[in-house]
Amino acid sequence: MAELQEVQITEEKPLLPGQTPEVAKTHSVETPYGSVTFTVYGTPKPKRPAILTYHDVGLNYKSCFQPLFQFGDMQEIIQNFVRVHVDAPGMEEGAPVFPLGYQYPSLDQLADMIPCILQYLNFSSVIGIGVGAGAYVLSRYALSHPDTVEGLVLINIDPNAKGWMDWAAHKLTGLTSSIAEMILGHLFSQEELSGNSELIQKYRNIITHAPNLANIELYWNSYNNRRDLNFERGGDVTLKCPVMLVVGDQAPHEDAVMADSGGQPQLTQPGKLTEAFKYFLQGMGYMASSCMTRLSRSRTASLTSAASIDGNRSRSRTLSQSSESGTLPSGPPGHTMEVSC
């Protein structure tokens, strides 16, 4: 497995008082399914996993995760963990367009690329953060490599394959809408798109004018051809690690969630997501001394511990109920935390 590229870059963002610029190293490695590019921030910490992210369709690691990881309260977390941002093949900045007829990897094959990344970096375990298609990829990886995944944060995941009705609707939409508009409809709700906020304008421009739009369409097609993950409560197919499920109140596939966030909560509510992530890490035994701020004072935030990834909305343990102690009671192996924001 040979290294194709290594570039040092300095992250461009406003610095907090006393904070030094992060140095990022971008690498590309060959896998059985083609080359994959990823960017590493920080240095490995003893006895701590890496945070590994995987973005959604139409985005890359920067456009998907930068608002979250540049958020002020997130700095305490990233100082304690090395992080690896994976770009799906052909999604990295400056990626050349794949030749006509190129066979893009399936989502299962994208998951099978991750061991090559960890082997190259000599990392033994990760905490994954995935959005949409990226959440599916990380879930598939965790099912096949459970010993290397300590936890998962899954944002707007759809674990189900498309049914016949979905396929029919997708084909009809394709007759009247461009690829860019279909992907925007995947990322944001119709209410958000109709409102045409500054955020929507920004991402519409990013996707519509993307020089690698043909590559994005290939990733989109792989997502629409995904297999069912077949999660079962108490069955053989289940995630063995702690899981934090996150969904925005205007996510296209979510009906009953709370207010304040749109279809992409890592973009619109990085503060709430950061606070929930701190609770999640504390439940796993990390950052025990971290101070809770925003959400621990909020009686409207909803953060629950459920039993499995199948979407059970039990509200038996809310954040406001546990805010007095400042920590989230940890559940058994494989417990799931739900966040609506």
TrEMBL record:
Listed InterPro entries: AB_hydrolase_fold (IPR029058), NDRG (IPR004142)
Subcellular location: Cell projection, Growth cone; Cytoplasm
Main subcellular location: other
Gene giving rise to this polypeptide: NDRG2
Record carries keyword rRNA-binding: no
Swiss-Prot/TrEMBL keywords: Cytoplasm, Developmental protein, Differentiation, Neurogenesis, Wnt signaling pathway
Pfam families reported in the protein's UniProt record: Ndr
Family under the similarity heading: Belongs to the NDRG family.
Region described as Disordered: 1-22, 304-341
GO biological process annotation, one example: nervous system development
SUPFAM superfamilies associated with the record: alpha/beta-Hydrolases
Protein name as annotated: Protein NDRG2
Assigned GO CC terms: cytoplasm; growth cone
